[in-house]
Amino acid sequence: MTWRKAARQFMRRPLAVLGLVIVVLMLLVAIFAPQLAPHDPTKPDFMAILQAPSSQYLLGTDEVGRDLLSRLIYGARASIQAGLLAVLIAVAIGVPTGLISGYMRGWIDQLVIMRIADAMIAFPTIVLALALAAALGGNLTTAMLAIGIGSAPAFIRLARAQALGLREQEFVEAARALGNRSIKVMLKHVFPNMIGPLLVQTSIAIAAAILAETALSFLGLGVQPPTPSWGSILRIGTGYMQQAPWLSLYPGMSIFVTVLGINLLGDGLRDVLDPRDRA
Amino acid sequence: MFTFLVNRILTAIPIIIIITLAVFSVMQVLPGDPTLAILGDEATPQSRAVLRERMGLNRPIHVQYLSWLGGIFTGDLGRSLVDNTPVTRAVGFAFPVTLQIALVSLFISISIGVPLGILSAVRRGGILDAISSMFALSAISIPAFWAGILLMYFAALQLGWFPSSGFVRFNEDPWRSLHHSILPATALALRPIGIFMRMTRGSMLEVINSDFVRTARAKGASEVAVNLRHALRNALIPLFTLIGLEFSGLMGGVIVIDTLFAVPGFGRLIYSAFLRSDFVMMQSLMVLFSLVVIVVNLLTDISYSFLDPRIRYS
Q: Which one of A130, A135, A252 has the shortest CB-CB distance to B149?
């Protein structure tokens, strides 16, 4: 299937387009945060502590009088950045490893790579983040590293499974028979044919990475104050659940809508790109 | 069958070795000296040297690793750096709590996710399918801790149906204990609900169009019997693998949910060990977290092979 045809099919699915719109909007919010935010997200105003949503503060203020809407707008940056960079790490580790492992096969594939991937899967990402935070300090970088490593095994497995299937295909065999070196066959013939499923997995992984980053920031292991992030606003917000429920409501809503948008987009991509699940 | 079991258990061994090696290496690069953590900053060099010797920190690194590994398999997980209590005792208190919440969570997610998936598949393309598919996607997209916050706010603080935090042990008062575990378990169940629903729907759709289901329908079996007895039974087999896979996420989620609801489970144990820089506790707990995931995966694989004989012989 050509990419153009896939794009046309994608645009015919209303939910997938809705997902794309949400994702584009969130990206714009993150990029243009300084232009969009009505107030300074880090400047306390002790005359305006815990104010309910009003015309001046559309979503209310927090425990030191900072505008919640502005903090949420800037918070989009941390979550989206963390989601993208963590998945970039996962792709950089997982795809070459899985591709080589699946194409070359042999004992390194069976006994080393797959066992390491299994071990990584058995290790919950948040536990890994705790370990890295203990060793390197809790901040956004260690959180992203932990999420990236935690998301890598899914890419190793996918790239390996694809490579195992593709290496038996006639066009790959032909490329080998022509005397091409393995590395060239992998890059020019195997890899381009697994991009579709990889894109689907990438969107799923970004959604999961954003959820993981917000959970870590909620625990105080991700973005450090005063930089605003959705997870850390919720962390403070739970302490004021009765007096200021908006501090617990809107940050969670931002995470939910963003992740839902990415998942809708991912489902749409799966429908048009991934032959495995075409029912 | 026996060979399958032995093989499956043997594959877990290298995984456990990789995990213990990784955990041990990470804990070696930690900043700070454990003797300072125990004795405080005022400690004399002599007393610290004595403690180093007693804790075995002067031994070669591989000896330390092997003795720690040996401890894990003989039930000696070391002692907490903070209060010197055995780690096994803390684990003994926390494990039943986490097991209970995980089981309640699994029960909720299967009993909602699977029926929704069947309904969706049987009514494919209809309004019910659209609603439950959207519900499933939302359940996957909602952060578990925010779902917990919402549940806490509405079901506990506003309506007063459930306690908002704390825990009662099962052996003290089973009824109140379950009551306390419902909100944390529901928050953890949302993602699996969505995953199980989507999986059930997908595999039901595949099975519904297969020859044996058409045969069942052709011989005059009722619609309900066709869907439940013939289609569902075969559609459910992949569920077991998924339960195993979801368990890793569940164990991670426990850390956030325990913290939010003040549940004295595994999650709170490792998080407070982290906050108090109790590295001996952390090191052993990290291995235990992954051991739980490995054992659950082993169990689901084995039960899977009982249900589907093809697995055993492939």
A: A252
Question: Under an 8 A CB cutoff, do B286 and A126 touch?
Answer: no
Taking CB atoms and an 8 Å cutoff, what residues of chain B touch A131?
Answer: 23, 26-27, 282, 286
Interface touch A130/B289, C-beta < 8 Å: no
- Using the structure block, give the residue that is written with the tokens 């080998």: A176
What does the pLDDT read at residue B46?
82
Q: What pLDDT is stored for residue A63 in this prediction?
A: 78
- Looking at residue B248, its amino acid is S
Contact call for A241 and B153, based on CB within 8 A: yes
Say yes or no: A131 contacts chain B, CB-CB below 8 A.
yes
When pLDDT is cut at 50, 70 and 90, the band that residue A278 belongs to is: very low
Residues of A in contact with B253 (CB under 8 A): 126, 215
Contacts A–B by Cβ distance under 8 A: 139
* Residue type at position B121: A
Give the separation between CA A223 and CA A30, rounded to whole angstroms. Answer: 15
Residues 6+ apart with CB under 8 A from B137: A260, A263, A264, A267, B194, B198
The single residue listed with the structure tokens 């591709």 is A99
User: What's chain B's average pLDDT?
Assistant: 85
Q: How far apart, in Å, are the Cα atoms of A277 and each of A179, A199, B121, B198, B205?
A: 34, 14, 15, 12, 11
Chain-chain contact of B259 with A219 (C-beta, under 8 angstroms): yes
pLDDT at position A40 is 83
Q: Which residue of A has its CA nearest to B205?
A: A279
The whole-angstrom distance between A4's CA and the closest CA on chain B is 26
Kindly indicate the confidence band of residue A275, based on its pLDDT and cuts at 50, 70 and 90. Answer: low
Residues 6+ apart with CB under 8 A from B13: none
| Residues paired with B86 in a beta bridge | B79
Closest listed residue to residue B180, CA positions, set B191, B190, B169, B172? B169
Q: Is A18 on the interface with B (CB under 8 A)?
A: no
Alpha helices in chain B (DSSP H): 2-28, 34-39, 45-55, 61-74, 87-122, 127-141, 144-151, 174-208, 211-218, 223-225, 233-235, 237-261, 266-275, 279-307, 309-313
Q: CB of A147 within 8 A of CB of B38? A: no
3-class DSSP state for residue B303? helix
Tokens of B12: 């877990």
Distance of CA A21 to the CA centre of its chain: 17
Residue A145 to residue A229: CA distance in whole angstroms:
17
Neighbour-count burial for A110-136, b at 16+ CB within 10 Å, e otherwise: eeebbbbbbbbbbbbbbbbbbbbbbbb
Sign of CA dihedral A219, A225, A227, A232: positive
Q: CB neighbours (10 Å) of residue B269?
A: 26
